[in-house]
């Protein structure tokens, strides 16, 4: 494989693949790397109903089309490619990928997205796929006629709580605050459902059980009292954290670890741009990631053209 | 049939054959869902790096899965797809439930199937 590229995009989710489509069409030699499965969070989405111009589709099928589009305009897309060393500081950026080699480019676009937030309790790890799940559509049917909990208070938590009532005999929504962050319609929908009950101002302190989950222990934030809720399943929807731990001290991050950019999606490091859920922004959707991928690619193309003009 | 680039185990006889030949194999038993697709992808990426291991998928809702992997004592505590089992010397030497990264799979291949 070639070692020198015009642009290396790190992260092949909606933002990274879109950046690739624009870069490829502008004839910039582009390598898109992903340490996981190509597609990012879109792969985790059973049905996307709000991507304009596309009737409700599985996230995986949108990924397939985006990947074909990026490869169709000449991008090389590498999944399961672990970046083991990198230097983004100089004019020529260096990225070394396990088993593949060392690649260089004057431009890097960081599109590393996010991963589901975990509570970080040791017992959470122990009960993964043994009662704890992060995907209602994938694992809901394991809990048919059982009592389960949903942890979280945003739209995802309340919508999934309602959808899980198709299987479970009861769904208890456990939330750390008194008020839900979800939109009023999502709260209303959940409140209307006779199988859904609510435990608010509760901090989860432990998942308990012998081999499989049997209860969730919470602490009431108002009284300090411990409460044990019997449940064979716990679905966690407590938001996302940016995949930027590896970028600390490399580019400017805010206090939540999100990459700081200007309007043209430049970071504080010359030649390094950022797009998608990994950067500072309020709304994280496929449409906004796609928009970011577009802006970052167009800014990168402008930057590369300026470099070429300066060298001529 | 699952839409992956892995070989598929489609009958109980095929599964039993894998056990009885005593070789090393990894079988991912799942659906075309969000937690399963990344595991198939990890296996596809590792296939060329472990030539002594055979990599397969198996459809979770097909009769073959109900007759084989879904019956194993090793998976009875699993409440998350996919169920992944590792075979060596005619035995199940390891099983995982739920999504796994390429690094996690590699770790299992290096330690349990070494
Ligand atoms: C369950 C679920 C349902 C959703 N439903 C919808 C919906 O219906 N509609 C909607 O618009 N949005 C939805 N979203 C949100 C939407 O999917 C995301 O906002 C969007 O896909 C983010 O795209 P991204 O490219 O910024 O990041 P991601 O999709 O997170 O992609 C980032 C990629 O970077 C890779 N990566 C990370 N770190 C590295 C590294 N160090 N080296 C190499 N690669 C790396 C990751 O493996 C990943 O593939 C949903 C999200 C989830 C989780």
Tell me about this structure.
The complex is a heterodimer of chains A (312) and B (114). Chain A is of the alpha/beta class. Chain A has two domains: 7-115 and 240-311, FAD/NAD(P)-binding domain (3-Layer(bba) Sandwich), CATH 3.50.50; 118-236, FAD/NAD(P)-binding domain. Helix content of chain A is 26%, strand content 25%. In chain A, strand 5 (93-97) and strand 6 form a beta hairpin. In chain B, a hairpin with a 2-residue loop joins strand 4 (83-88) and strand 5 (91-97). Chain B is α/β, with parallel strands linked by helices and 114 residues long. In chain B, strands 1-3-2-4-5 form a five-stranded mixed β-sheet, covered by helices on one side. Chain B has one domain (7-108): Glutaredoxin, CATH 3.40.30. Chain B is 32% helix and 25% strand. Chain B has four helices and five strands. Classes of the chains: A alpha/beta (312), B alpha/beta (114). Chain A binds chain B through residues 35-39, 43-46, 58-60, 79-80, 82, 99, 128-133, 135, 137-139, 142-143, 211-213, 232-233, and chain B through 31-38, 41-42, 45, 49, 77-81, 96-98, 101-103. Bound molecules: flavin-adenine dinucleotide.
Structural class of chain A: alpha/beta
Strand content range of chain A: 15-25%
Distance between the termini of chain A: 28 Å
Spatially, the strands of the biggest sheet of chain A line up as: 3-2-1-7-18
CATH architecture descriptor text of chain B: 3-Layer(aba) Sandwich
Please tell me what the overall shape of chain A is: elongated
CATH-derived topology of the largest domain in chain A:
FAD/NAD(P)-binding domain
């Amino acid at each position: 494989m070639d070692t020198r590229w015009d642009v290396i995009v790190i992260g092949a989710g909606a933002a990274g693949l879109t950046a690739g489509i624009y870069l490829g069409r502008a004839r910039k030699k582009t390598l898109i790397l992903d340490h996981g499965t190509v597609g990012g969070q879109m792969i985790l989405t059973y049905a996307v109903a709000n991507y304009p111009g596309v009737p409700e589709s599985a996230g995986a099928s949108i990924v397939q089309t985006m990947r074909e589009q990026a490869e169709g305009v000449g991008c090389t897309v590498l999944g399961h490619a672990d970046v083991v060393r990198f230097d983004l500081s100089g004019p020529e950026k260096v990225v070394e990928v396990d088993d593949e080699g060392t690649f260089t480019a004057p431009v890097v676009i960081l599109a590393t997205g996010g991963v589901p937030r975990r509570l970080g309790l040791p017992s959470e790890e122990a009960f993964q796929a043994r009662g704890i799940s992060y995907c209602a559509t994938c694992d809901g049917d394991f809990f048919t006629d059982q009592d389960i909990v949903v942890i979280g208070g945003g739209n995802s938590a309340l919508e999934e709580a309602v959808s899980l009532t198709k299987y479970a005999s009861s769904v208890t929504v456990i939330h750390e605050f008194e008020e839900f962050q979800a939109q009023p319609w999502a709260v209303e929908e959940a409140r209307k459902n006779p199988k859904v009950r609510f435990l608010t101002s509760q901090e989860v302190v432990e998942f308990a059980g012998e081999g499989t989950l049997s209860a969730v222990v919470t602490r009431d934030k108002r009284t300090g009292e411990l409460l044990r809720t019997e449940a064979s399943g716990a679905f966690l929807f407590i938001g996302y954290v940016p995949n930027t731990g590896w970028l600390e001290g490399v580019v400017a991050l805010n206090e939540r670890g999100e990459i700081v950019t200007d309007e043209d999606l430049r970071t504080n490091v010359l030649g390094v741009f950022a797009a998608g859920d990994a950067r500072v922004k309020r709304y994280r959707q496929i449409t906004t990631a796609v928009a970011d991928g577009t802006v970052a690619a167009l800014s990168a193309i402008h930057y590369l053209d300026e470099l070429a003009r300066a060298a001529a | 049939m699952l839409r992956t680039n892995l070989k598929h185990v489609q009958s109980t006889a095929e599964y039993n054959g894998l056990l009885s030949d005593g070789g090393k194999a990894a079988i991912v038993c799942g659906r075309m869902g969000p937690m399963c697709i990344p595991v198939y992808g990890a296996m596809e990426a590792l296939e060329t790096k472990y030539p002594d291991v055979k990599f397969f998928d198996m459809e979770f809702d097909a009769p073959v899965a109900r007759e084989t992997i879904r019956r194993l004592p090793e998976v009875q505590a699993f409440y998350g797809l996919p169920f992944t089992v590792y075979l060596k010397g005619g035995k199940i030497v390891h099983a995982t439930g739920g999504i796994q990264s390429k690094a996690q799979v590699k770790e299992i291949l290096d330690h349990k199937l070494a």
